[in-house]
Write a structure and sequence with these properties.
This protein is α+β, with helices and mostly antiparallel strands and about 375 residues long. The protein contains twelve helices and 17 strands. It has helices at about 35-50, 50-65, 70-75, 100-105, 160-170, 170-180, 195-205, 235-240, 255-270, 280-290, 300-310, 340-350; strands spanning about 65, 85-95, 115-125, 130-135, 140-145, 145, 155, 155-160, 190-195, 205-210, 215, 220-225, 225-230, 290-295, 320-325, 325-330, 335-340. The strands form six sheets. The protein has a seven-stranded mixed β-sheet with strand order 1-14-9-2-3-4-15, with helices on both faces. A two-stranded antiparallel ribbon has the order 5-8. A two-stranded antiparallel ribbon has the order 6-7. A hairpin with a 7-residue loop joins strand 16 and strand 17 (about 335-340). Helix 2 runs parallel beside helix 10 (about 280-290). It is globular. The N and C termini lie close together (about 10 Å).
Length: about 375
């Protein structure tokens, strides 16, 4: 698959699904991670003192941008079943807004923004396992009629690139598109831009990844030898955005890297001594919130803390990462379409909170 000239040079990765073969960590820390984050933030505020504490809390709270997705979506949505747990749509936005985002995105004057990375994260009710499904950005989808960010209506359209829905309609249109293609009700929406991603990685002191083969990508600036590397924020951004030098250089070539990095990032955050270092806690909280956009239900420090507590049992080592099964489009080999029946079986298993069949994890289009 060749790079779309109208898109930034950031593409999705390998189609191989990645299981959770690592040994699960023992002890109470994994069950209390959300509580530690909340207590850590509160400790920072208490140590800061009365007036300053309010300022710090308000500073973090004001960092978060909220969008009223429920209002924009209306009633035409999949039913919320009582046993389906939580479903999040997580987007990495390639917005060029601001000087730092432009520099990190390659420095070009690219208008608008696209959903550079898209993950549907399913967290079953009362369990420790979770699954993250990557949607390739060049997947051709049917975009339903939806309400744009400016409040105007956008007509439905067929065979549009998935990542274009964000730039054309905004977050609510992306959520509605995902709900229509999957039949899954999305409970929450999280979006982070280039600068926010970089700052978060730098705030936690970097993320360690293991590179199986050398990667040299002039477009992203990534140059890594095979082996273990601790990446800073800028290197991490290049790592999850690289496509040249891996696979066939297509959008599909980097999903494997993104999924590997996601698990490494979650593991690194979990290992942070939040209660033992209030300064570190505040730095991480500030970086995590200042470039974050969420649905209104999560658009406050209190709501985010409560949501973190609700996921106390989820451990990174139990998360399974899968790419939505896709096939090369017969009309345009530079695009992909959802492969059936694999994609349908995958979404059905998540909707019903059931076991995902192995056949639903295999994609005809592999990206080499």
């Amino acid at each position: 698959m060749s790079h779309d000239a109208t898109s930034p040079s950031t593409h999705e990765g390998r189609s191989a699904s990645h299981g959770s073969g690592r040994k699960r960590r023992e002890g109470p820390r994994k069950r209390r991670r959300g509580l530690k984050i909340t207590l850590g933030i509160l400790l920072v505020l208490l140590l800061a003192g009365g007036g300053t504490a309010y300022w710090m809390y308000k500073d973090l709270d004001d960092n978060i941008t909220g969008v009223d997705i429920d209002k924009a979506l209306g009633e035409d949505r999949p039913e919320k079943l009582p046993t389906t747990g939580q479903n999040l749509l997580v987007l990495g936005s390639d917005s060029r807004a601001g000087a730092e985002n432009q520099e990190l995105g390659g420095g070009g004057a690219v208008s608008g923004a696209r959903s550079d990375t898209a993950l549907v994260v399913h967290i079953p009710e009362g369990r420790t396992e979770a699954v993250a499904v990557s949607i390739p950005r060049d997947t051709l989808v049917t975009r339903p009629e939806c309400v744009k960010s400016d409040g105007s209506a956008m007509a439905s359209a067929e065979r549009v690139m998935f990542n274009s829905v964000y730039s054309q309609g905004g977050p609510a249109c992306v959520v509605k598109t995902v709900e229509k293609m999957s039949g899954i009700r999305i409970d929450h929406y999280l979006e982070i831009n280039f600068a926010g991603f970089k700052d978060l990685v730098d705030a936690i002191g970097g993320v360690t990844v293991k590179v199986e083969e050398p990667i040299k990508d002039k477009a992203s600036g990534l140059d890594l030898t095979a082996g273990t590397h601790k990446l800073d924020g800028t290197q991490s951004l290049a790592y999850v955005r690289t496509r040249h030098g891996i696979g066939d250089g297509s959008d599909l070539g980097r999903i494997g890297l993104q999924q590997q990095f996601l698990l490494a990032l979650l593991t690194e955050i979990k290992s942070q001594d939040l209660l033992g270092s209030p300064t570190t806690t505040y730095r991480i909280a500030n970086s995590a919130t200042k470039s974050l956009t969420t649905d209104e239900g999560l658009a406050s420090l209190t709501s985010l803390s409560e949501f973190a507590r609700s996921m106390n049992g989820v451990d990174p080592s139990t998360m399974e990462t899968i790419m939505l099964p896709v096939a090369y489009d017969k009309q345009d080999p530079n695009r992909v379409v959802a492969a059936e029946p694999q994609a349908g079986d995958l979404w059905k298993a998540i909707r019903k909170d059931g076991t995902i069949p192995e056949s639903a994890k295999k994609s005809p289009a592999t990206g080499g």
